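User: Hey, my collaborator sent me this sequence without any context and asked if I could get a structure. I don't really work with proteins. Can you help?
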Amino acid sequence: MATKSFALNTEPHVAAIGDTELLFQPEVMGDDFMDGYVGLRDAQQAIGVDIDNLESLDSQAIRNIAVALREFLARLMLPESAELITRLQVSQAGKTLDTFTDRAQAEAFAATVEGDTRITYVLRLPDRVLTELMEWTVELYSGGKRPPTSSSGSARQSRRSGTRGTGVSPSRVSTPTPGPSGG
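Assistant: No problem. I've predicted the 3D structure and written it out in C-alpha cell form, which is a compact way to encode the shape of the chain:
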C-alpha cells in the first residue's frame, strides 16, 4: 500500500510593503478562495468594468474597483491585517473625525457632519500594488492558475485559419480559459 504525505502551510504569508507587513492566511480552502474571487469578479462586472478598456472608466468606478480589491484581499488576510487594509478615516480640514472598517458606515457618518468631509484609507496603496497583491494571492492559493470564471466581456478565441493538420486529435487540443486582468 502506498502512502503519500501532504504538507500544510502553517506560517502566514507576508506581503512587505515599505515598512508595513500584511499577513495572509497560511492556507485558504479552495471554496473560500473561489467565493472571494467570484465576489471580486461580480463587483467588477456590476460596476460595468470592461477590462480591455479601463480608460473609459470614471473616477468613481475606479474607486469602486479598488474597494472590491481591498475586500477580496481582506478575506484572505489574518484579522489584524484585514482590519488595516479596510480601515477608513473620515476627516475634515485635515483632522480625523472617526475611523471605520465598513465603507457604508463611513459614508453614513460623513453625511451627518456639516461641511466637506473626506473618506480615505488609512493604509494608502497605489492601485498597482493592490493589483500585484491580488495576482500574488492567486499564485499562493490557486497554484498559480487564475480560477476559471465566466465573463460575458471575455473575448472568444479566434477561429483558426486554414485546415487543421492530422497530427493532433481535436480531443487533445486545449483551449485556454480567459482570466481576469489585474483590475
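In plain terms: The longest strand covers residues 95-100. You can pass these C-alpha cells on to your collaborator as they are.
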